[in-house]
Write a structure and sequence with these properties.
60% of the residues lie in helices and 0% in strands. It is mostly helical. Bound molecules: zinc ion. The site of zinc ion has 7 residues, from loops.
Length: 189
């Protein structure tokens, strides 16, 4: 059918007509959070889709001479190792959980947090922090790979906290419940 012959044609309609569609996934709302920065959302979308080019993949297609983790060098750099088991990342994530006063998630923190029966505001803040944290891990992994720079987890924690405090302050009007505001005040201290 010619678009020119259609009444009410719009670019949106044309785009929807030609684009490839897949079924909606349950975790999409967790990743595309209003509390998070768009670059954090995008990186995590790739992460949950298992679409980041970690060294195990690059090695398999002959781009990398080895598949060791860029950060610790102690194990194969897979998505699971880099974001859940690398000792550097574990220390970073544990400190963030201590700051938020929550248990350390099992598996991907975004999916795990999405399943908690917590207040919506608390869940949104924690998810935004984890979106930021995983972005920071990938950024540091790239810095380690390209420049050979590996910062200490304490510096990364401080950077992540500072960024997220500013972000939480900008969204504070969304927190109406007294318990949410009290918890937020605690993490902003
Ligand atoms: Zn590692």
């Amino acid at each position: 059918m010619e678009f020119g012959l259609l009444k009410g044609y719009s670019v949106h309609f044309g785009y929807e007509w030609i684009r490839h569609k897949e079924p909606k996934v349950g975790w999409a709302k967790l990743v595309w959070s209003k509390w998070a920065l768009p670059k954090h959302c995008f990186l995590n979308w790739l992460l949950i889709r298992n679409a980041l080019n970690t060294k195990d993949r690059l090695y398999n297609i002959g781009i990398c001479p080895d598949e060791l983790c860029c950060i610790c060098g102690a194990d194969r750099e897979t998505i699971s190792h880099l974001f859940q088991h690398c000792r550097y990342v574990t220390e970073f994530i544990n400190s963030l959980c201590l700051w938020l006063n929550i248990p350390v998630p099992r598996g991907n923190g975004i999916i795990w947090l999405g399943m908690r029966n917590w207040s919506p505001v608390m869940k949104c803040v924690c998810i935004a922090v984890f979106l930021c944290a995983y972005y920071a891990v990938w950024q540091q992994r790239n810095a380690a790979r390209i420049e050979g720079v590996i910062p200490r987890p304490t510096i990364l924690i401080s950077q992540c906290k500072t960024l997220m405090k500013i972000r939480i302050l900008s969204q504070l009007s969304r927190a109406k419940k007294h318990s949410d505001r009290e918890w937020i005040q605690h993490i902003l201290m």
